[in-house]
Design goal:
- The protein has 297 residues and is α/β, with parallel strands linked by helices.
- Helix content is 44%, strand content 22%.
- The strands form 4 sheets. It has a 5-stranded mixed sheet.
- The N and C termini lie far apart (63 Å).
């Protein structure tokens, strides 16, 4: 059975229309239509009900969808193993990291890596979404939570310590908080729709909602830039704050939980010299960073 026919069948089943499936597969609509017709002829029965709203799986089509997905998963594993056979350190490495890590931590590391491996191109995905390594949305991911998928290689690299910070100008205007309770009477910079920061503060015994923040944005870089601009008191990593001499750490006795820094990649890529080289370089570089007070000592 031609894999292209199965691939087309899955795309139409998932999108519901030839137009969307053709866009997803980057083929022409007529080509996709021919694939579906050919597959139906080979199977001897209709796979889709066609109407003005799109294409809906028949009962026979539904009965085949799980087997088609298994074939797709096996094809993906085959592609990953094939990628692992490459021996020359050329090509690209796609690295995913949170907005903050991608902006304030990785640039110097990746620049140094490129100096040592000039034939390897770097694709940096700055996103707070957990990229799907199993489907190759990224080759390597820097995560602040431990990956749980069994098909991934995960290595804990470091721990990032957090703190509360404000600019000297802000403190001159509004005063310096002396206690945690006093801290929460100030203008705070926090998240908007994300409840991550609210939950973290609640875990310390400070139950509030998003209205506690005078400035709210879910973009982590914009959030930190607001703090650096003197908008209010914000929360971030000690190492990142050290990059801005104008920032002052507040209420050091207020202990925040550290964020574990993990590196993850698909296990099929452990035999790929290019990916392994990037993984090892990231590991050694991130491990050396003084991300906490303990690391600085």
């Amino acid at each position: 059975m031609d894999w292209n026919l199965i691939h087309s069948f899955l795309a139409v089943a998932e999108t519901g229309t030839l137009i969307k499936a053709a866009e997803q597969l980057r083929v022409s609509q007529p080509t996709l239509g021919r694939h579906i017709t050919e597959l139906e002829q080979k199977m001897g029965f209709a796979l889709f009900i066609r109407d003005r709203s799109g294409m809906t799986l028949t009962d026979a089509g539904i009965s085949l969808i799980d087997d088609a997905k298994k074939m797709a998963a096996e094809a993906e594993k085959f592609a990953l193993k094939a990628a692992g056979q490459q021996t020359v350190l050329t090509g690209s490495v796609r690295i995913a990291a949170s907005e903050v890590v991608a902006t304030y931590i990785l640039p110097k590391i990746l620049t140094a890596f490129r100096e040592e491996e000039p034939k390897i191109d770097i694709e940096l995905v700055a996103s707070n979404k957990i990229e799907n390594l199993l489907s190759r949305d990224a080759d390597i991911a820097v995560r602040m939570i431990k990956p749980t998928q069994s098909d991934l290689i995960a290595r804990k690299v470091n721990d990032m310590q957090l703190g509360a910070f404000a600019t000297k100008n802000y403190l001159e205007r509004y005063g310096k908080p002396k206690t945690p309770e006093n801290l929460f009477t100030h203008q705070l910079v926090g998240y908007d729709r994300s409840d991550l920061m609210v939950k973290q503060l609640a875990s310390f015994g400070y139950a509030h909602d998003r209205n506690m923040f005078a400035f709210r944005t879910d973009n982590q870089v914009a959030n930190w830039e607001l703090v650096k601009a003197g908008a209010g008191i914000g929360f971030g990593g000690l190492y990142i704050a050290d990059q801005s001499p104008d920032l002052v750490r507040l209420v050091p006795d207020l202990e925040f939980p550290t964020l574990p820094v993990w590196l993850a990649s698909h296990q099929e890529l452990k035999t790929n010299p290019r990916i392994r080289r990037a993984m090892d370089f990231l590991y050694e570089s991130l491990k050396k960073l003084p991300l906490s007070e303990h690391a600085k000592a």
